User: What shape does this take?
Amino acid sequence: MKNHTPYSNFHQDEPLLTNEYTQDEFLQDYLETYLPNEVMNEIRPDLERFGKKVATELIEYANACENNPPKLISFNAWGERVDEIKVAPEWEKLEAVAAEEGLVAIGYERKYGAHSRLYQFAKLYLYTPSSAIYTCPLAMSDGAARLIEKYGDNFLKDGPYKGLTSRNPKTFLTSGQWMTERTGGSDVSRSMTFAYEENGEYILKGHKWFTSAITADMAFTLASTEQPIDGKRAPLSLFYLPIRKEDGSLNGIEVEALKDKLGTKALPTAQLSLTGTQARLVSEKGKGVKSISTLFNVTRIYNAISSVSYMRRAYALSESYSHIREAFGKKISEHILHKKSLRNLEIAYQSNTILPLYLSQLLGREDCLVATEKEIALLRILTPIAKLYTAKSSIQSASEHIEMFGGLGYLEDTNIPVMLRNVQTLSIWEGTTNILSLDMLRAIEKDNGLPAFQDFAKDILNNISKEELQEAKNIISDKVKILFSFISKLSNKDEWEASARDIAFFIGETAIALLWLDLIQKCPKEKYFNALNYWIKFKMNENTLEID
Ligand code: MFK
Assistant: This one.
């Protein structure tokens, strides 16, 4: 018998998460800093329990959904058109969990007043990367609830609103937000859907090209009540529609196809024909875009929290893996270069996370009617900035994390690549980076965004008293001056537009630095000082402001 070298039976242990709340020191510090003790004492046990659930049971559901994407059954065996969408059973479980956990309801029960939104968004942050993007229907449902609260009539407040904000899986309802048509994803005013008034009701006829979560119970959509005159389209109006009629059949809707997307494969995104859909006018005629902005300004904050939640989750996995994977004679966590790369990714997730958490605090104040005019204006301008900024960071970060696993990160069955595919949508849906940069300009032009940002910066800077923060404070203060000096030189619309993206990123980075200052002033941990210094040194020098 020859003496062969025995083949290796080595297998690599996989990184395991245990509790995504108790393991996330940064999230805990943020909440402990900004929420009153009595609120924290009540919600801490819930977050600890949920942190474990998202790290265990829900991951199983999410993986099952990703591996069993929805299917469209157009006809039944007997030739009848049914347009049924079959989703994985776990997709329904993720919905039930969302209802029971109050992932939308917390924001409307307002048990903790203006603090409720921060609590809710902390839970969404834990849930999203374990949800196969079930957060998308939740985002639209939350936006719909906000819309109804602001503009809804008694019918909408009595029925749909109660379902959207229910904690009971049996009565919980979700909503879609249908805007995109073949003629326009960014420019929705090119819509070709028309609303015909019949006996005081409206019938919609047209087409919707991308409608996420067609398994929802209702949708808000845009249509024109007037035909174009000389090729000029009339402004759009906002409509509510139930997806199904009382007898369970579709409400004048044909599901033409499910979209074959790069990611978010568990989420049923459909292409629809509206063949005579009964609908209810919600906005003033012609004020549809303005009205639906209430909805999409909420989904954009969801987008931002989803972006950072993936950054956190990928970091948690890479970090765990670094302690179990060996290379060149030691754990990869002990290799200085790997350690430094991980530290950069940790700083990136924490820094980006500050933005949507802060926005959720502003949203909570707006909800509870305690926000000042300046805070409302700040929420308005920071929403598109946070959305665009965190989405880009998330994509960059997901790509880096794949490398943290070497070749294994490229294998589908590690469930690492799915993160990159899923986050790639976050810079597109709900408005691309350019569209959101232009929305920031709208917030500047129409909603006093800049004075609000200036005051926000001033307020934070004036409150920084810690000696160790003075150098950082001076640098950040100079950045704010650079921003306003640059803006003062913009002399025409083209210059504003061409600079919009640079300004958005510059404000995003500066806002993060300011929020770090505020957090460290109240929670002075050494690792946060280091994170801020890193941010100032490397991130804040990435973008310059220059007129092309
Ligand atoms: C997991 C994460 C969750 C994410 C959920 C994902 C769900 C996916 C579903 C979708 O993707 S739905 C499709 C999303 N599509 C978009 O977000 C559209 C992107 N395009 C834009 O945002 C355009 O800028 C816009 C459609 C708004 C341009 O339309 P218009 O009609 O050319 O805008 P215009 O004329 O500037 O504004 C009309 C009014 O709305 C103005 O008010 P007034 O009538 O009082 O003058 C604007 O000030 C107002 N407005 C526009 N955007 C606003 C806004 N008001 C407040 N906030 C905004 N963001």
About this structure: Residues 25-164 form one domain.
